[in-house]
Amino acid sequence: MKVNRIGRSIGAEITGVDLENLGPQEFQGILDAFHGNSVIAIRDQDLEPGELVDFSRRFGPLEDQLNARYALVEHPEVLVLSNDMKDGKPVGLIDGGDFWHSDSSHREKPSLATILHARQNPRHGGDTEFADMYRAYETLPDEMKKRIAGLKGIHAVSKAKNKRVTISARRPDAKDHYEMQKSIPDQAWPLVRTHPVTGKKALYLSARFTIGIEGMSEEEADAILDPLFEHQIRPEFVYAHKWKDGDLVIWDNRCVMHRGTGGYTYPDVRTMHRTVVAGDRPF
Ligand code: OGA
Ligand code: MN
pTM value? Predict the structure, then answer.
């Protein structure tokens, strides 16, 4: 098994491993690479949904999928991301993750890791970008570090509550979906969280989910949030993953943000199988 850094401060590719036959020592190697690089791309895999679930569970219990209508019937832990069509209807979630975010930060227990396995890559576009939230925190001016210490961001799932995002026109029923989600309670998490394994501090907020700061007026909060949103996606923190056939990518939602960049159009099809490893409350 070989691990090579491919991004500047995050992102490594792993070759020479077969996830269908993975010994405990090799899994430990993958886990170390995951903690050391925050995003890992394991090359040349071809996992059936059941195999993907078995491999994913080695990281911990899996999260139930929020968009259950696009989960596989036989394997409800697996969500289909796809722009493919059947009988005039999308077969998967289209445009998932189009704004910078960390998965499930709006839930009571935000996710630990997300695993995407490429089943079909488009000829154009479809990259996923990742931003290193350890570096984003480390490079903040001391004054800003002091200002945000102890503050909590408010995370909301509904796009209809967030003035910084727009609702994709490509997704059927998206407007009703987000209107319905308005009643789901928000969550408050530290703007700076400590990674439970590495012990390092990471910025924890995103333009997609963070809509305010606990105990602050909108104006006061925006004066902090807007510069942070700009800072945290500086190009030097970003690793853009260009998908190869057979890739299986795992990212650590506790210390990276990500987004799908789109750029492909049906009948150029992109299909991913996705599982999510459940996490704990950020501190
Ligand atoms: C996700 C996500 C982006 C992509 O699966 O959580 O944001 O590029 N995906 O598919
Ligand atoms: Mn996502």
Answer: 0.97
Using the Cα atoms of residue 249, residue 67, residue 230 and residue 155 in order, give the sign of their dihedral: negative
Q: Where are the beta strands (DSSP E) in the chain?
A: 2-5, 12-15, 39-42, 79-82, 85-86, 89-90, 113-120, 128-132, 152-155, 187-190, 192-194, 201-203, 210-213, 238-241, 248-252, 256-260, 271-277
The pLDDT of 90-117, averaged and rounded, is: 95
Which residue has its alpha carbon closest to ligand 1 atom 4?
260
Q: What is the DSSP letter of 235?
A: G
Q: In the predicted model, is pLDDT for residue 122 greater than 80?
A: yes
90 Cβ below 6 A of ligand 1: no
End-to-end Cα spacing for the chain? 34
The reply to whether ligand 1 has any atom less than 6 angstroms from the CB of 113 is no
Tokens standing for residue 246? 């057979």
Domain 2-278, CATH number (from 3.60.130.10, 1.10.630.10, 3.40.50.2300, 3.40.50.1980): 3.60.130.10
Q: Is residue 217's pLDDT more than 80? A: yes
**Residue 103 Cβ contacting ligand 1 at under 6 Å:** yes
- Judge whether residue 243 has pLDDT over 80: yes
Pocket test for ligand 1, best of 107, 128, 168, 242 (most atoms within 8 A of CB): 128
| Both tokens assigned to 42 | 């394991």
